[in-house]
Amino acid sequence: MKTFILRIAAIFCAATACTAAAAPASAAESAPADEAAPVVTVVESVISDYVPTSTDVIAVHGKSGTPLHIKVVQHSPERENLVMYDNQFEQAENPVYMYHVEPGQYTVTINYPLVYSGPMIGSYVSDFTIENADYSAEPEIFSQTQYHIELESKFIEAQKKAESVLTNTETQFKAGAKQIINSVTLERYDCHRGDYNNDTKTDLHDSRDTLKEYVYNFVGTERDDAANPMQIASCDIDADGKIGLRDQRYILTFYTTAMVKLKPTWPDGIEDVRFKDFVE
Fold it and tell me: Judging by DSSP bridges, how do beta strands 121-130 and 95-100 pair with one another?
C-alpha cells in the first residue's frame, strides 16, 4: 500500500512540474507486471483564470471502474462555497483524477450510480483542510499536502440500503509531503435500470411488476413482497424516490423500442450500457 502511494506521489510531482494530462512513461516502467500503471488525469478548474500557487493536490483514485461525478468546493473568506471543479467521468481502468488546489477548506462530493445506467445515486462527502507547513500545527515539516480518496466498489444484497463506507484513514509524511489517505467502499447493486426481477433484461415482466407495485402502494396494501431498495433504485426511472405509473410507462416504452430493433433510450438521456454498441 505504502509503496503504491509513494509511486503515485512521484507521478503527482512530475505532473505538477509539467502539467501533463497523463502519467509519465516512467510510471508504466516502474509498475509491477501484474499491476497496470494508473492513468493520471490532471483536471482543469471550472474557473478559467484559477491558477494555484501551491503544489497541493486532491486525488481521487477511481479504481472501482464506476462512472463518477466529482465536485470540489472551496470554503474561504474570499471564496465561500465556490465550486472549483465539477466533472463527470465515465468508466476507466485504474484512473486517478488529480486536482490542483491552494491551502484552504474544501468539500469533495463523489456521486455514483447505484445500478447500471441508473439515475439513482449514492454519494460520498468529505470535508477537510489543505494546509502548508507555514501555519501547520503538525510536528513534522512538510511543504505539500496530498489528500487522497481511494475508491473501491462492492455489490450488496437487494434488501440492504446502499451506502458509501469509509473503511480506513491514514496520515503519513513522506518526502516533504503530508499524505492523507481515505479508503472508501461504494456500495452498489448488480442490477440494470428498469430490471425489477434482476434477470439482466428490461421487459414486459418488469413493466408488469412495477405497475403492480404502483397499484399496491396507491391503495395502501401492505405485503411481504414490496419493492426492496435494489428494485426501487432500478425502477425509479424518474428518480423521485418511489416507483410510480410514470416509471412503468418508461420501462414499457424502453422495452417496445428494443423489440422493434431500435436503440432504446431513457428519458433523461443516460445511455444504457446494454445497448452501448448498438448500431441502428
Answer: unpaired
C-alpha span between 132 and 105 (Å, rounded) = 12
CB 119 within 8 A of CB 113: yes
Amino acid sitting at position 87: N
Q: Where are the domains of the chain?
A: 2-188, 204-275
What are the phi and psi torsion angles at 258 (to 5°)?
A: -65, -35
Q: Say yes or no to pLDDT of 262 above 60.
A: yes
Residue that has been written with the C-alpha cell 417496445 in this structure? 256
- With CA atoms as reference, report the closest residue to 268 among 237, 247, 242: 237
Residues pairing with 138 in the sheet: none
Q: Of 167, 153, 61, whose CA–CA distance to 113 is shortest?
A: 153
pLDDT the model gives residue 41: 94
246 phi, psi to nearest 5 deg: -65, -40
**Taking a C-beta distance cutoff of 8 angstroms, is the pair 23, 37 a contact?**
yes
pLDDT digits (tens, 9 = 90+) for 74-104: 997 776 789 999 999 987 788 999 999 998 9
- Predicted local distance difference test score (pLDDT) of residue 69: 96
Q: In this structure, are residues 98 and 117 in contact, taking their beta carbons and an 8 Å threshold?
A: no
Cα distance between residue 239 and residue 228, in whole Å: 15
Helix (H) or strand (E) holding 110: strand 104-113
Q: Cell 484559477 maps to which residue?
A: 50
- pTM comes to 0.83
Pairing state of beta strands 177-188 and 144-155? parallel
Span 162-168, average pLDDT:
97
